[in-house]
Amino acid sequence: MPRSMAQEQKDILKQPAPKEPPWRTSRRIGIHTSTAGGVETAAERAYRLGCSAFQVFSSSPRQWKPYGLAASQCEVMSQLRAKYDLKPLVIHANYLINLAAVNARFYEQSIQAFRGEVERALALCAEYLVVHPGSHRGMTRDEGLARAADAIERAAEGLDVKKRGLTVLIENTAGSEFSLGGSFDQVVELVERLRKHIPIAACIDTCHTHVSGYDILSEEGYQQTMQYLDRTIGLKDVPVWHCNDAKAARGSKLDRHQHIGKGTIGPEPFRRLLNDPRTAHAAFIAETPIDEPGDDMRNVEALKKLVNDSSVTASKKRTPKRSTPA
Ligand SMILES: [Zn+2]
Ligand SMILES: [Zn+2]
Q1: Span 112-120, mean pLDDT?
Q2: How far is the CA of 326 from the centre of ligand 1 (A)?
Q3: What is the DSSP letter of 260?
Q4: Which ligand is nearest to the CA of 246?
Q5: What's the CATH number for 3-308?
Q6: What are the residue numbers of the active site?
Q7: Dist CA 79 CA 171 (whole Å)
């Protein structure tokens, strides 16, 4: 079934609201959530999917023209987030933006579009705005990194990013040819360049980490990769993890997300990550495919079940018994 049809048939907002709040874990877990019907609708969806954090696009991810965002929508979003304790709200920037574009017109268009992303993230009171560092095709990698840093600085110029509590997160990428951010070193270079200008940190995607070549599969490989991440970016500067299994092999540089536990990563690396004391401050967001209706809720559940919480929470993991029919 095409993704859009699967989503349409299983839109959780068209089903009865849950009678009891969905169970939660000590770790903040969520999923990239549909904004069909308005960006603010995502908060109710995230709650019903059992999330304690969530990510959205604040506009169409593959169109330049942004949606208008009314003050009332932002208000509803904030009210729902407070009611359901949904934190953080992560915005993922548009995919068309290339902050390192060599073409001058495309570069300026990308800066303007990213400025719109920052403005909408501020309007929605989001905590984080995730962006890919871009493609350096036509330039050296170092030139591309410098250009991307300048673009982010310019896009945020004069906006109250710090005062309003928004942090821009540079996401590591799958490392395909010309794409910046395929190594932790490139991410940290951008973070370092931007630190004195805006609140900046990193978002680490498990699928991108794996296909770009880092070992997170074995216990030893996981520990080495985490130590390396800590030495470069610093684990405290990773407030958001994208939890995606992968369809492709380690080192393949192919960015194809798979359901949690069902791909070339498998469940164990996620279990380690979700119970690692060094990631206790972070939120974990799935960006998994929806191949069948209900895949979104199943992936949120899969992540939650990997968290080793106390027995009190564990007892809630069992599906509540339905009342016997009269
Ligand atoms: Zn991304
Ligand atoms: Zn991601």
Answers
A1: 96
A2: 49
A3: T
A4: 2
A5: 3.20.20.150
A6: 62, 92, 95, 132, 171, 205, 208, 242, 255, 257, 287
A7: 28
Both tokens of 61, joined, read 């991810």
What is the Rg, in whole angstroms, of the alpha carbon atoms belonging to the chain? Answer: 19
For residue 241, give the ligand nearest its CA. Answer: 2
Could you write out the DSSP letters of every residue in 181-238? TSSHHHHHHHHHHHTTTS-EEEEEEHHHHHHTT---SSHHHHHHHHHHHHHHT-GGG-
Burial 13-25 (b: 16+ CB within 10 A, else e): eeeeeeeeebbbb
Ranges of each domain in the chain: 3-308
CA–CA gap between residue 69 and residue 59 (Å, rounded): 9
From the CA of 203, how far away is ligand 1's center (Å)? 9
Three-class DSSP category at 253: coil
What is the Cα–Cα distance from 245 to 324, expressed in whole angstroms? 38
Residues 217-265 have pLDDT tens digits of: 999 999 999 999 999 999 999 999 999 999 999 999 999 999 999 999 9
What span, in angstroms and rounded, lies between the C-alpha atoms of 31 and 36?
Answer: 15
Q: Whose structure tokens read 């309007």? A: 123
